[in-house]
Amino acid sequence: MPDDAEHPQNVISGEALLSGQTVQARDIGEVHFHLCRRRAPADGDESLLVGVMPLAAESFQEREAAARLEQSLAGSGTAVLTGGGVLGSGVLSGMGGVGKTQLAAAYARRALARCVGVVVWVTAASGQAVIDAYAEAAAGLGVEGCEGRDAEGDAGRFLAWTARTSREWLVVLDDIQDPGDVKDWWPPADAAGRVLATTRRRDAALSGHGRQIIPIDVYTPAEAHSYLTDRLALVGPSEPATELEGLAAELGHLPLALSQAAAYMLDASMTCAQYRALLADQDRTLADLAPDSLPDQHPQIVAATWALSVARANATRPEGLAGQLLELVSVLDPNGIPQAVLTSPSALAFLGITEGDRVRQGLRVLDRFSLITHNPAAADREVRVHQLIQRATREHHGPDQPADPDRTAVMANAAADALLHVWPDPERDQLGQILRANTTALHHATGNALCPSTGDAHKVLFKAANSLGEIGKVAAATAAVTELHSLCLHNLGPDHENTLRARSGLAHWRGQAGDEAGAVAAFQDLLTDCLRVLGPDHLATLTTRYNLAQWRGATGDDTGAATAFQDLLTDCLRGLGPDHPQTLLTRSSQAFWRDMAGDAAGTAAMIQGLVTDYLRVLGPDHPKTLGARNMLGLSRGRAGDAAGAVAALQDLVTDYLRVLGPDHPLTLTTRLNLAVWQGDAGDTAGAVATLLDLVTDCLRVLGPDHPSTLIACRNLVYRWNQLDSQGLA
């Protein structure tokens, strides 16, 4: 073997590496340590590092994940886990950019500091790369029988050495791309050694045989704040905490993104606020926001970090689906997407498939490659995805291939249709809130695709805004509809039907907020414009007249409302016909306001006829039919037949429970009406019992501030006091 003067050794002591000394050698850089072709010291000599281990990142953070790793691979023998099993290998698994390699390198440096005998760093991007690294390690360690002519044979000899040596060793398999590449090349779980791997994959093949998957996520908010504080403080005054926290949140606390953002700011002498302004500019790509020279030896900008994972996922069965699915989830809420949205008919049509099971298979593939998190047990939030993966996906579908605006529009409308398809009526639990968040994310991600300058605003925008009021959040609904009106006004103009529809929503929620007179004035102005733009017979014009009459009655003008509905009914019968839903609805409101104006006897006959027609046109279980039956019961009570009202409403509650379920607003309202007439019929105790159950359910379903909850509470207090005055409370 040539002497060391001609071939300087590249086996470095752990003490020198950890002390920060610069290692001088002619064929290596200051911090890249390559395996030499020389026999290693005998077992028991100083620690050896073979292979190339990356530099420690600037302002490296001691993360909570590092503590979990140490605990999992603790001690010199086989680690004992809390579950009682044994472990010889740890697999750091997570999306690209979360810092898996840096965590593994930090662990390796600590191993050297603990005088672990041999540390072998393998870049495991392919099966051949693993074989070559093991063969080189065998040669450098002077493993018996290693002659350098048979790489695979020498790699096997290295594995045999790990099984029999008494020296403590650590093998790091960094960046495993395919579990099949390392299937036959895992060193054995042995008391003398440890294996630490990093990968974006989550395949079951990576676990078992003494191996434990250790999930690695993004920085915690505290870790992200600490990193930015340390990194940016190197060259300038400290940044405001709110700016640092805002930037960290906007970058999703992703270590790689924070590293590149900090480098960009340092290179450009830019403040955090200035960088955030650039980041918010959707005309700039993530590549535009990367520094000219990437920090910490990272080979790719954040936008390209996931390209290989996407390509591999797309080539995995079902082939070609993963990429399209990633496109679809890239325009929805990163914090939680209902799986039902992705398996809805419109989503399946966009994906070009017909079976929801294929979508579930595709989601599992994306999860295995750490491109999304798919948790079927997380009800209504089964799919999560990092916001920067979303942005990178939207910006590019391949090298130098920008997103297609036409495809974006098709995708946006497919996603919007999917959201509408799964929107519950009534909203249950948190699903409505989740769907609103997805609608907001979709609108933000796709620009004007849901409200183009030519065409119509998508119905999901109206649903998301108005649904806030339907759950009792009237102020929030008013704000959302105001924003929607501004969007329609800007994109579609003042006379577009969607702009007029948004004005109708504004007028309605104004009245619901307590300004009934203001609602009347707003609907009167809207009617003037509807007549001018759409004409007297347009459905939107007739609907506006309907709303105007309703709010006129709400101001106390019962007779005026009844007269207005009589006139409207004449025009609906002429323009729409007797069986049109708007005609039937107008008949229902005419009867109600005629009843309120004092004609209870005449109203009962009108409503009975209405129920008959609803049964014929819509069937017995349609909400409008059930609503007409509710009116019939109330009219009986107002006509003096309280017992008849109770009987009719008890039957109706039974049918509402069967058809709509216990939590539907109409079910709750009918139970309230039943309690009112129970009390008026003399059954005060029954009314209190009904109201106690009703208030409990209203609080659970609607919340304490919903108008129906407040009305039920007031009625309960009234009937309870009445019961108390009777000495029965």
Radius of gyration: 35 Å
State mean pLDDT (0 to 100 scale): 86
From the 3D coordinates, which CATH architecture of the domain at 14-215 would you assign? 3-Layer(aba) Sandwich
The neighbouring-strand order within the major sheet is 1-5-6-7-4-8
CATH topology of the domain at 14-215: Rossmann fold
Strand content: 5-15%
If helices are DSSP runs of H or I spanning 4 or more residues, what is the number of helices? 31
Given as residue ranges, the uncertain stretches (5+ residues, pLDDT < 50) are 1-44, 75-87
Largest beta sheet, briefly?
A: 6 strands, parallel
Q: What is the molecular shape? A: elongated
The CATH homologous superfamily of the domain at 14-215 is termed: P-loop containing nucleotide triphosphate hydrolases
Beta strand count? 12
How far apart the termini lie comes to 103 Å
Coarse structural class: alpha/beta
**Residue share in helices?**
55-70%
Given this structure, which CATH class of the domain at 14-215 is correct?
Answer: Alpha Beta
Summarize the structure.
By secondary structure, the chain is α/β, with parallel strands linked by helices. It contains 31 helices and twelve strands.
Key terms:
729 residues, alpha/beta, Rossmann fold, 6-stranded parallel sheet, 31 helices, NB-ARC, TPR-like_helical_dom_sf, P-loop_NTPase, Tetratricopeptide repeat protein, ADP binding
